[in-house]
Amino acid sequence: MELVSLFSGCGGMDLGFLAAGYRIVWANDFDSDAQQVYSTNIGRIDPRDIRDVDEDEVPDCDIITAGFPCQPFSNAGNRRGVKDRRGTLYEECLRIVKAKKPSVVVFENVRGILSIRDHTGTKLMDQICRSLEIEISPGYNVDYRLIKASDYGVPQNRYRVFLVAIRKDYARTFTFPEPITCDKKTLALGNVLNSIPKDAKNQIDWPLSPQALYMAERIPEGGSWKSIPYDQLPERFQRIHRQMKKYRSPNFYRRFSRNEIIGTITASAQPENCGILHPVENRRLNIREIATIQTFPHDFLFNESKISGMYKVIGNAVPPLLAQIIAEEILLQVPELVKRDLETCQRWAI
């Protein structure tokens, strides 16, 4: 099963598909931090802007995966959608799909993509589905779903949209796997942190700013900025506190407790915007800790000389465990891929 990976990032999606038995024949990402991590752990990656890559330079393949930039669609960003130059990069994915006609296509993105509309007023997901179903020959049967990562054994309440398209000549539509039955207590933050070997690499954190450290020192385990007495809040937070309805009661500086499942690990890693604070220590969760929450193995290495960049690429990644579950389900539902792969191996053996 030969896979072409677009917008590969640091390799979360690819790692999951590798674990399921796929072979990556070509990968691409423009981000230099992601490239460095990918090449260290997985292999060669084309560093060019995908817009500069001709379709003929991309190898034939059974499957194309893509996690095109999510920032234009993210609730944590400015949600400019297709008005953002990055917001049209899904068209590059469709361009490659049209040329290569793989058996299966897998796209992943933030849930904000479900409400974004393109320049015609059409919902972007409807446009993407229409392109795959009708505008690309022979066309694809498409389904997509908003998935909660913790439902599939990932120790993180991370919501992401997965789209899986199967070429119509296979005469079937992908059925997403049902959530895994497991004791959610095993996904609690404390269990995840305790699972990290003491000698694991990359146990280094990005130091907090003076204000962030001031806030962290006053927030108890399981609390947030709202746990700080009003008279100890910086003036800006006092102003927000006085107008909670106007600001929609934001939950800045969330500090998840050890018995909770943590929220989304984000690319920004700013404590004001996500629960990146360690449950009991006054610091950010370190590189190895957030990588483990994202289900990267303990021997997957990151570049400590570019620490903020590592928080970014880990936050942008698809949890490898979640990718593996999707990858294995595809093989169950499209067994022809396995059969053809075995036939290819036999021909090479001869």
Number of helices: 11
The best one-word shape is globular
CATH C-level name of the largest domain: Alpha Beta
Task: Look up the CATH topology of the largest domain.
Answer: Rossmann fold
Helix content range: 25-40%
Average of per-residue pLDDT values: 91
Give the N-terminus to C-terminus distance in angstroms.
Answer: 19 Å
The gyration radius over C-alpha positions equals: 21 Å
CATH architecture of the largest domain: 3-Layer(aba) Sandwich
Number of strands: 6
- How many domains, as an integer? 2
Strand content: 5-15%
The order of strands across the largest sheet is 2-1-3-4-6-5
Within CATH, the superfamily of the largest domain carries the name: Vaccinia Virus protein VP39
Order of helices and strands: EHEHEHEHEEHHHHHHH
Show unreliable segments.
Answer: 77-82, 345-350
Structure classification: alpha/beta
SSE topology sketch:
Layout: E1 2-6, H1 12-19, E2 23-27, H2 32-41, E3 63-66, H3 90-100, E4 104-110, H4 124-135, E5 140-148, E6 159-167, H5 189-194, H6 210-216, H7 235-242, H8 287-293, H9 307-316, H10 320-333, H11 336-349
Parallel strand pairs: 1-2, 1-3, 3-4
Antiparallel strand pairs: 4-6, 5-6
Helix pairs in contact: 1-10
Summary of the model, kept short:
With 350 residues, the chain is α/β, with parallel strands linked by helices. It has helices at residues 12-19, 32-41, 90-100, 124-135, 189-194, 210-216, 235-242, 287-293, 307-316, 320-333, 336-349; strands spanning 2-6, 23-27, 63-66, 104-110, 140-148, 159-167.
